[in-house]
C-alpha cells in the first residue's frame, strides 16, 4: 500500500495543501517548525486514530478554524480508496470511505502505517502509558474493531472511577456498592480482552524484534518483552505502591483465565480503591518490560542501545503488519529520526526500510538522510509546499495548494 495523494484543510499550520506521492522513498525537508511533521502526522492519524505528539484532537485543528480535514488517496494492487476524516472542535468527528459515510474507527482497516519519531525514545525510557499507547496503536491497525473495545473500556473506567469518588465522599452506601458490582462485570469483560490481545501481541513481536535489533546493531543483545500486569499485583503507574499486594489473600492464580484474575484483583483491591477513588487494576495500569541482556532497558541501556531498541520495536511492528495485511506493506514514516542517529545506525536503518513499498522521511537537513533514500525531495516552508529550499518562517499562505470545492467539509 502507498499514499498516492494527501490533502489537508485547516490541519495544524496548513490552511490548505495537496501533496502528490509515489511508491519508494520521499524526503520532506524543511526547517524546524515549518510543518513537515504535520504532513506525516496526518497520515499516521488515519491509521491509528491518534497523534504521536498530542493526546487530543484540538491541537490538530488550525487556530481559528472549527474543523480540520484529512484526505488520503491510498493505492494498493491497482485499487484505490479515498479516506476522509473531519476533526471537529465541537461534536463527533466524521469520516468517509470512497465518499460514503463511515465511522472514524473504520479507517484503520484501510490505512496501515508505522511511524518512527524522536518521541520513540520514550518507549524505552518513558512512562508505562507510552508503551501502552504503542501496543494499542498496533493492535488497532491489526484488528480495527479493538478501537471500539478500547473506547468502551475507557467509558466504563470513567464511570467506575466516578462512582468510586462518589462512594468515598458519601460513605459506603449499599446501593453504590451494588452498582459498582455491575460496572465491575463490564470492566472485566472489556479489560480481559484487551489484556489478552496485548499479551498475544507481545509474544508475536519477540522474534521480529530480535531480528530487527540485530539488523540495526549487528549484535545479539537479547532484546526481550515481558508483560507487567496490574491484575497480578504489579502497579507500574504508581511507584508508591508495592507490587504483589493487589491480589494478596484472595487473588486468582496467574494460571487462571484473565477475566477470573481481573475480577479477583478488583475484589481484593476494593477497599484501597474506595479510599483513593480510582480503579487500581486493569489494562489502563499495565506495562511491558523491555530487557536487554536480561537487564531492564530502562535504566541500564545506553542512549544508543535505547534508540536501537525503539527502532527495532517499530521495525518489528512493520513486519507484523506486512505479514498480516492483505493490502501489502504498511507505509513507513521516519520523522526526523536520522538526525538522532550516528552514521552506522543511519546506514543500517536505511537498509532495513529500503524494501518497503513506501517510505516517507522528514528532515531538517537533507544531508542527514542516506543517499539511497533521498532520490525524491519535497520542500516545506511556513505551512506551504514550495519548489525548493527556503528560509521562510511565516504563517501558512491561504493560497498554497488550496483544493477548490473541497474546503467545506467531508
From TrEMBL:
Q: Which UniProt keywords apply?
A: ATP-binding, Cytoplasm, DNA damage, DNA repair, DNA replication, DNA-binding, Nucleotide-binding, SOS response
Q: Does the keyword DNA damage apply?
A: yes
Where does it localize?
Cytoplasm
What is the top-level taxon of the source organism?
Bacteria
Locate the region Disordered: 228-256, 388-410
| AAA+ ATPase domain residues | 22-384
* A Pfam family this chain is assigned to: SMC_N
**Comp. bias (Low complexity):** 243-256
Q: Which Gene3D superfamilies match?
A: P-loop containing nucleotide triphosphate hydrolases, RecF/RecN/SMC, N-terminal domain
Q: What does this protein do?
A: The RecF protein is involved in DNA metabolism; it is required for DNA replication and normal SOS inducibility. RecF binds preferentially to single-stranded, linear DNA. It also seems to bind ATP.
Family recorded in the similarity comment: Belongs to the RecF family.
Report the HAMAP family cross-referenced here.
RecF (MF_00365)
Name listed for the protein in its UniProt record: DNA replication and repair protein RecF
